[in-house]
DNA sequence: ATGAGCAATATTTTCGAAAATACTTGCTTC
DNA sequence: GAAGCAAGTATTTTCGAAAATATTGCTCAT
């Protein structure tokens, strides 16, 4: 990243602070900002071109999401990655995602079915086009996120959905971390298709089992391939 | 609240912003700041004696907890109360709290048992001393919170515990709201005792049933007594 | 050498002014 | 009289300087 100060301009959110939070979140999830790295205001001000207080506001939201931690009076740092945290996170994700999926399958209407089918279709197309390294592909990541989001989108639980989204980001950071050290990504296309079919077929128990093992297996793989770089404690 | 500007000084947290967040949270949960009330910076600055940016940081955390909502460029307001929100909240609380309780019962050690027993004891003492209106008593509320916190304190899931705490605050606001209109509080002493006994007796299924219906019944009562003041949409 | 105390430096935290944006009021036109 | 516009006011959002706090590096006594 260049060291010349930039004059930040909004691209995404309506306020600069939310925009910065969005960009910072991305830097952290993709591990361009490394776990445990300390987030000094002078440096951030240079990279993001915003003032102390605006950055502070952005960091406050990220701390609430769990991507950043703060020791009061001693600044902020990127949240550490540990096997304990990964296990904690995985447990929480399964609990919440299974509940959301079950209720989505119960309540989902035609539009929901269409969202599920079309987001899977898009995902499959991207995988066809770049069968080698799609897991490092930002487009694939966005489509992957959208497919999983579509599955739970009819649950009608804003509170749990917001929590799910924060957890998804935290998990994606671990996925990206393990992708750096993994010889070749597991093929998830079959799992995604089965998940879609169970959901659309309103086979709730089966779909919940699938999502549970989908999340758990991903987590296990991360633990396996990234164990070296992930702090044990 | 007096209209003379105060020079804020820290009482609680290490930074002023976290201190203000703490005080604001309390004002909102106790409904001294009413649902939907718009939170103007000039007014807040007067009451809390902090500057724009410090207040903004505090509001950002409260927004993440769901006690405050923001429409970008149009400021902050106290989160509305609705029957939908109450139902959403209750569902999320049951899902998370049941999971935490079950795992607490599985893992809890001697210290956990002591925390559960002693916090219930304190609660019972307070109820004895003020059998009439203990539900409006700040001391009782703190003890009540601590008892429920003790129950789940051995679960070892920081992520879900943090979520649980935020949900507890949101729920307490609804409880306080209904307490204003309710002739007489339901007697929860028996439920609390049964909960303690099931937990200490390591009877996980029974304890989970009890906590589930404890939360659900409380929510139903709130809906019943506060329906008038709670927006239907 | 080692650690305590203190000065110098680095960093975070807080402030109030200035810029940007939204809202209101009163006027004009149809 | 209603709709649209414009100027003025209210409010939020952003900034960089100043205050508070933490960290580092040095001196000196043991």
From TrEMBL, chains A, B:
One of its GO terms (molecular function) is DNA-binding transcription factor activity. Keywords: DNA-binding, Transcription, Transcription regulation. It comes from the Bacteria. The keyword Signal does not apply. Residues 14-81 form the HTH gntR-type domain. InterPro entries: GntR_C, TF_FadR/GntR_C, Tscrpt_reg_HTH_GntR, WH-like_DNA-bd_sf, WH_DNA-bd_sf. Pfam families: FCD, GntR. SUPFAM superfamilies: GntR ligand-binding domain-like, Winged helix' DNA-binding domain. This is GntR family transcriptional regulator. The lineage of its organism: Bacteria, Pseudomonadati, Pseudomonadota, Alphaproteobacteria, Hyphomicrobiales.
